[in-house]
Amino acid sequence: MSTVIYPSPIFGPVHSRRLGVSLGVNLLPPDGKSCTFDCIYCECGFNKDHRPKQGLPSREQVATALEEKLKAMTADGLSPDVITFAGNGEPTIHPHFAEIIDDTIALRDKYFPNAKVSVLSNATMIHKKNVHDALMKTDNNILKLDTVDPAYINEIDRPLHTYCLDRIIDGMKSFNGHLVIQTMFMKGTIDGKDVDNTGEEYVGPWITAVKEIKPEEVMIYTIDRETPTGTLAKASPEELDSIRDRVIAEGIPCIASY
Ligand code: SF4
User: Fold this and answer.
1) pLDDT tens-digit readout, 29-51
2) Which residues form the Radical SAM core domain (predicted)?
3) 73: CA distance to ligand 1 center in Å?
4) What pLDDT is stored for residue 69 in this prediction?
5) What is the CATH number of the domain that holds 225?
6) How remote is the CA of residue 257 from the centroid of ligand 1, in Å?
7) Global pTM value
8) What does the pLDDT look like over 52-72, one tens digit per residue?
């Protein structure tokens, strides 16, 4: 199935299901994907099929391109609801992620002070102090937690390096509530193995972890775009609504996107 590689360092604005009018900041190369996960549902495709040849954009390139885009949007009378760090992989692997967040907040304050700064991250770098501190400065620190089942993580998110769930959960707790948990629920198979994570054996322990982490919000979603694995399927609206309602019953805001 076809997948998408985004321009870098700026793309959009695009209309996001979850975030509104979103101007994208892509800290990864423009010709491929770089991520510490290799999710079977990644809209950018599998890592092995999209190895980039170009390098990461520099801090200066990101700031210059972002300011040019914000000026152009001002001239066109367009306002972003959010400036979103996303794109071809994991934004926090950029060695100057923290400085780029500072630059972005300064530009946001100058051109569109009402816009939010959001980061979509898989949370694998939150143990690094400079990444943690930068994420604390953002408006929406959106961190992926697809499951708390280590075997499922290895089958679905496929971390490239050792992934210690307890360490990730402790890292999420250390934001003291300044985070949004984002979780993919889906059905289907990969290589003949069932990947349905909507059952109680996955949802129950996941809700227990969410309660411990105490995020300001939870976003649950399902397959929406083409994926590199053709045998995946959407969780149903009823299943997502049921999970959402259980999170809300714990006193944690939760939205479901279908
Ligand atoms: S964490 Fe995001 S960018 Fe990385 S492989 Fe998974 S879906 Fe793709």
Assistant:
1) 999 999 999 999 999 999 999 99
2) 34-178
3) 28
4) 98
5) 3.20.20.70
6) 18
7) 0.96
8) 999 999 999 999 999 999 999
Helix (H) or strand (E) holding 100: helix 97-111
> From the alpha carbon of 89, which atom of ligand 1 is closest?
3
- Residue 17 reports pLDDT greater than 80: no
Q: Which residues line ligand 1 (CB under 6 A)?
A: 35, 37-39, 42, 44, 89-90, 122, 144
Residue 198 covered by a domain: yes
In a domain, 3, yes or no: no
Would the pLDDT of 16 be above 80?
Answer: no
Percentage of the chain modeled with pLDDT above 90: 93
The residues, ordered by sequence, that sit 6+ positions from 192 with a Cβ below 8 Å of its Cβ are none
Of 39, 119, 182, the residue with max ligand 1 atoms within 8 A of its CB, to mutate for a pocket test, comes to 39
Who contacts 200 (Cβ-Cβ below 8 Å, separation ≥6)? none
Ligand 1, from 38, 42, 126: best to mutate by most atoms within 8 Å of Cβ?
A: 42
Contact (Cβ atoms closer than 8 angstroms) between residue 38 and residue 49? no
* Domains of the chain: total: 1
User: Does residue 230 belong to any structural domain of this protein?
Assistant: yes
HSE of 188, CA atoms in CB hemisphere, 13 A: 20
- Cα 46 to middle of ligand 1, angstroms: 9
